[in-house]
Specification:
Largest sheet: 6 strands, parallel
CATH superfamily of the largest domain: NAD(P)-binding Rossmann-like Domain
Strand content: 15-25%
Bound molecules: NADP nicotinamide-adenine-dinucleotide phosphate
Number of strands: 11
Oligomer: single chain
Distance between the termini: 21 Å
Order of helices and strands: EHEHHEHEHEHEHEEEEHEH
Number of helices: 9
């Protein structure tokens, strides 16, 4: 990996955006080509270093999407669905690593369409551990069968706006592929539990970067498979790995499982 890759980030002012700026500044494999802020943000024009308490980068924060796309080999996006869709509209082929979560079904279809001409990794969780968990939790559901109830529990920091998390939903979608299981689309929890219905439980609080558990409850035993992110740099490092992997790929929609080769 001797080539220096030019990587841009969106949502530069956000928790993940700032973490990524620091990760990229320390990487020998890439350099920060641009950092996008919301149009009209007064920070536009200021040096990127001032945003993350680092010495000047010699690079200004930008609110110009077309400039950001033009100067970059790949873009990493951790923002909000509406901002991601806007980025896609202006993008005619720059590879994109999308870490944003909370897309509607219709918005996901727009991303799938865009992936016909752009290489895109779309993942609600860039950690290697969660990619492994997705694979293993399906095998466990197959082994237990629908006599066991499955619940997915997630907890995140108080600032997270979508619920259940994109990771919890995608774990649920993987599990729902196992015969005998389906996603519970009822929000009403009164009455007996429906056989095979996968349910979600959500908590928000403090600074928790991301906890996910899949709980298999039988009549006489309970088994819990858990993943805990200890630090947001986990997601930033995974996103960087995915972005570097993405650069020489053909247009298409890829997952974190593709990136880690599982
Ligand atoms: N895939 C993963 O592994 C992973 C890990 C962590 C988080 N996430 C997801 O990544 C996303 C960002 O997380 P975060 O914790 O960094 O959130 P955050 O701290 O709230 O940051 C969101 C960023 O998006 C920008 N933004 C919001 N709306 C915008 C708009 N309409 N146009 C342009 N920019 C806009 C914000 O700009 P302003 O400052 O101007 O509002 C901010 O820079 C969320 O969807 C989160 O669930 C994914």
């Amino acid at each position: 990996m001797s080539k220096i890759n030019k990587i841009a980030i969106t949502g530069a002012t956000g928790r993940m955006g700032q973490r990524l700026i620091r990760e990229i500044s320390q990487s020998p494999h890439c350099e920060l080509s641009a950092a996008l802020v919301r149009p009209g943000n007064p920070l536009a024009g200021q040096d990127v270093g001032s945003l993350v308490d680092l010495p000047p980068f010699g690079l200004e924060l930008s609110d110009d999407i077309s400039h950001v796309l033009r100067v970059s080999d790949v873009v990493i996006d951790f923002s909000r669905p509406e901002a991601t869709l806007k980025l896609l509209k202006e993008n005619s082929g720059t590879p994109l690593m999308i870490g944003t979560s909370g897309f509607t079904q219709e918005q996901r279809e727009q991303i799938t369409q865009a992936a016909l001409s752009i290489p895109i990794v779309l993942t609600s969780n860039t950690s290697v551990g969660v990619a492994v968990m997705k694979k293993v939790c399906k095998e466990m559901a197959q082994a237990f069968g629908a006599d066991y109830d499955i619940d997915i529990f997630e907890m995140h920091h108080r600032g997270k706006v979508d619920a259940p998390s994109g990771t919890a939903i995608s774990l649920g979608q993987s599990l729902a592929q196992v015969p005998g299981f389906h996603l519970n689309d009822h929000t009403d929890r009164s009455g007996p539990r429906e056989k095979g219905a996968i349910e979600f439980a959500v908590a928000r609080g403090g600074g928790v970067p991301g906890d996910h558990s899949v709980i298999y409850a039988g009549e006489k035993e309970v088994l819990t498979l858990s993943h805990r992110a200890l630090d947001r740099s986990l997601f930033a490092q995974g996103a960087l790995r995915a972005a570097l992997w993405l650069q020489d790929k053909e247009p298409g929609l890829y997952s974190m499982e593709d990136v880690i080769g599982s």
